[in-house]
């Protein structure tokens, strides 16, 4: 058996990688945050173009920032990440329209498919979009297993 210790966590704000769509993923190791740069709770708030994303660099902030940068919409504020699973819509930032958000449990027999903002309300959540304007099509789906998430991430 090895006596090797786990590596030190990356300093707060260090880029850990890049998600699809070139969205940076940062370390959220709060104990290593620079207190001069982050003197109070408000200084941890993340904004893009005046739009609130969440607290740096938590999972909710990453999810909202990813949606904003890649799709142009955001979900409403939630107290905990697993509460995203209860949301039923997202907001298009440029015009405040609401788009439906459908949830699917991991391992569900009915799989998520792309839906189109033009077709919303006229198609069921399991009908693929066949819209002639593909640039306006979007995924409005969240895949999550709340019990696994709570256990692994400590968000009980």
Plain-language structure description:
The chain has 156 residues and is an alpha+beta fold. The chain folds into 2 domains: 8-71, no CATH class; 73-156, no CATH class. The protein has 2 helices and 11 strands, in the order ββββαβββββββα. It has helices at residues 59-71, 146-153; strands spanning 15-19, 23-26, 45-48, 51-55, 73-74, 89-92, 98-100, 102-105, 115-116, 137-138, 141-144. It has a 3-stranded antiparallel beta sheet. The longest helix is centred in the middle third of the chain and has 13 residues, at 59-71. The radius of gyration is 18 Å and the shape is globular. The two termini are 32 Å apart. The relative contact order is 0.11.
User: What structural class do helix, strand and pairing data support?
Assistant: alpha+beta
- Globally, the shape reads globular
Low-confidence stretches: 120-156
What's the helical proportion of residues? Answer: 10-25%
- Overall pLDDT score: 77
Beta strand %: 25-35%
Summary keywords:
156 residues, alpha+beta, two-stranded antiparallel ribbon, 2 helices
List the helices and strands and how they pair.
Layout: E1 15-19, E2 23-26, E3 45-48, E4 51-55, H1 59-71, E5 73-74, E6 89-92, E7 98-100, E8 102-105, E9 115-116, E10 137-138, E11 141-144, H2 146-153
Parallel strand pairs: 8-11
Antiparallel strand pairs: 1-2, 3-4, 5-6, 6-7, 9-10
Brief rundown of the structure:
This protein is α+β, with helices and mostly antiparallel strands and 156 residues long.
């Amino acid at each position: 058996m090895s006596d090797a210790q786990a590596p030190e966590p990356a300093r707060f704000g260090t880029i850990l990688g890049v998600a699809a769509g070139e969205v940076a993923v940062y370390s959220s190791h709060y104990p290593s945050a620079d207190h001069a740069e982050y003197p109070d709770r408000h200084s941890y708030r993340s904004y893009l173009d005046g739009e609130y994303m969440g607290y740096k660099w938590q999972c909710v902030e990453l999810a909202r920032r990813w949606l904003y940068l890649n799709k142009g919409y955001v979900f409403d504020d939630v107290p905990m990440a697993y509460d995203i699973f209860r949301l039923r819509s997202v907001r298009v930032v440029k015009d405040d329209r609401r788009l439906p958000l459908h949830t699917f449990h991991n391992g569900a027999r009915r799989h998520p498919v792309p839906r189109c903002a033009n077709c919303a309300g006229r198609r069921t959540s399991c009908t693929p979009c066949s819209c002639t304007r593909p640039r306006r099509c979007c995924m409005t789906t969240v895949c999550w297993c709340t019990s696994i998430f709570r256990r692994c991430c400590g968000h009980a």
